[in-house]
Amino acid sequence: FMSTAEARPAEMQDEPSPEPAARPSAVDPRQKYVVQYLSRRYRVADQAARMLVANAFEIGQDKKLDPLLILSVVAIESGLNPFAESPVGAQGLMQVMTRVHAERFVEHGGDLAALDPIANMKVGSAILHELISRGGSLERGLQLYVGAGNAPDDGGYGAKVLGERARLQMAATGKVDAAIAAARAA
Fold first, then answer.
1. How confident is the model over 94-118, as pLDDT tens digits?
2. How confident is the model at residue 27 (pLDDT cuts 50, 70, 90)?
3. pLDDT of 113-142, one tens digit each?
4. 5-22: b or e for each residue (b if 16 or more CB lie within 10 Å)?
5. 27 Cβ partners below 8 Å, 6+ apart?
6. 3-class DSSP state of 153
7. Are 119 and 108 in contact (CB under 8 A)?
8. Closest by alpha carbon to 126, among 109, 108, 112?
9. Which positions ≥6 away from 60 have C-beta within 8 Å?
10. Strand partners, 96
11. Reduced to 3 states, what is the DSSP secondary structure of residue 155?
12. What is the rounded CA–CA span in Å between residue 3 and residue 147?
């Protein structure tokens, strides 16, 4: 039996072994606190929260979208449950209408990719970014995202998302307990 390091060529032995399903590491110090908040608030494994947060920061940078906004939509839409499905067929972390946006999932492997947390966040974030741009404001973009584009208001959806983003911003500064307390009071 050989260790992983022994099994690799000598020139690669100084490099760390790749982790299974390696994801971006928490480079931004705010991520650690956001992970703590999400893990405690939504009762998800620390590793799962870390993966979601790291990917939200990466996707946010790629899409020019606030990663805490992405995470707040994930939290409000699915409670961080990647297998969530609404009565109207919205699926995954960001509750994307898979049948409406099927073409967006093709590059990620097809319709079943809607239940892949990272693919769902990438597609949902792209949709959210487009709707904010089309709507002309964050509030209007959220109204369009929740499907209330023709309604006089969004039934409080935007306020919920922005409230969660404010708590995530608080947590990101290291005030995790205060953010948890604010969530309980909301």
1. 999 988 999 999 999 888 899 999 9
2. low
3. 999 999 999 999 999 999 999 999 999 999
4. eeeeeeeeeeeeeeeeee
5. 57
6. coil
7. yes
8. 108
9. 66, 67, 69, 70, 125
10. 91
11. coil
12. 53
Q: Of 170, 184, 133, which Cα lies nearest the Cα of 33?
A: 170
pTM, to two decimals = 0.83
* Coil vs helix vs strand at 173: coil
Report the alpha-carbon distance of residue 64 to residue 125 in Å, rounded.
Answer: 10
Place of tokens 């409080």: 156
Residues 6+ apart with CB under 8 A from 167: 37, 179, 182, 183, 186
**The two structure tokens encoding residue 85:** 């499905």
Report phi then psi at 42, rounded to 5.
Answer: -105, 5
Element (H, E) at 96: strand 96-97
For residues 106 and 43, the answer to whether their CB atoms sit within 8 Å is no
Q: Two tokens at 111?
A: 């319709």
Q: What is the pLDDT of residues 38-49, one digit of tens each?
A: 999 999 999 999
Q: Which residue has the tokens 């608030």?
A: 41
What backbone torsions phi and psi does residue 16 show, to the nearest 5 degrees?
-70, 150
Instruction: List the structure tokens of 153.
Output: 């208001």
Token pair recorded at residue 154: 């969004």
